[in-house]
Structure formats: structure tokens, C-alpha cells
Amino acid sequence: MIPALEAIFGNRTAAAVLLFLENYEAGYASSIAKTYGIPVSVVQDQLRKLEAAGVLVSRTVGRTRVFEFNPRSPTARRLREFLGAELKALPNEITKDYFRERQRPRRTGKTLERARK
Predict the structure, then answer these.
(1) What is the reported pTM?
(2) How many CB atoms neighbour CB 77 within 10 A?
(3) pLDDT-derived band at 76, boundaries 50, 70, 90
(4) How far apart are CA 20 and CA 32, in angstroms?
(5) Quick check: is 43 in a domain?
(6) Is 117 a domain residue?
(7) What is the pLDDT confidence band of residue 55, given thresholds at 50, 70 and 90?
(8) Burial of 39 (0-12, 13-18, 19+ CB in 10 A)
């Protein structure tokens, strides 16, 4: 990931979780863990900490707990501004590897243009 963000947020998992949620707007533990190759339990712990601090909120969708930034938190709003700027400044290779995964189903009959690594 990015050493400066890891230092600012205290660890790799916190930086990964926050960047993922800023990029995709919502996410769940196993998806975040799979994207970055981090154990699910570690991601779950970080999500719980951020939710307890009021930065994130969660809701249950089926059997999955989905997290997103707390829209009522002024801290979360300022944090999102910072994270948005950091996402725009990321090198292309990092953006391709971590922040371009398709989040919704492909239209029926649409051809796959490029296979992912």
C-alpha cells in the first residue's frame, strides 16, 4: 500500500479500509480483505473500531454487514475529503490493482473486454 497513509492511520489495515470505503462508498469485511490480501478478522476488528468511534456506520443486508462512512459525522466528512485527494494522487499501478474492481453486475450479453490478473 502507501507507507505515508499507513503511518498516518497507524497501520496498513486502517489505511486500506478507509481508502476502500472512500473509493467504493460501501463495503463488507470479506471484500476488503480479499482486495488487499488481509485476514478477514483483522479487517473486521478495524471496521468495529471505526464504527465505535463514529466514523463508520453499518447495516445488515441479508447475512452481510455493510459499512460506509457516517454521513452525520463532521470528522468523517473531513476525512473523506482527505482520502478523496489521496485517491486521486495514487500512482496508476496502485489504482489498477486495488481500486478498479467492478461492483455491480455486468449487463447481459456485454462482452468482457479485459481479463483481470
Answers:
(1) 0.80
(2) 12
(3) very high
(4) 7
(5) yes
(6) no
(7) very high
(8) exposed
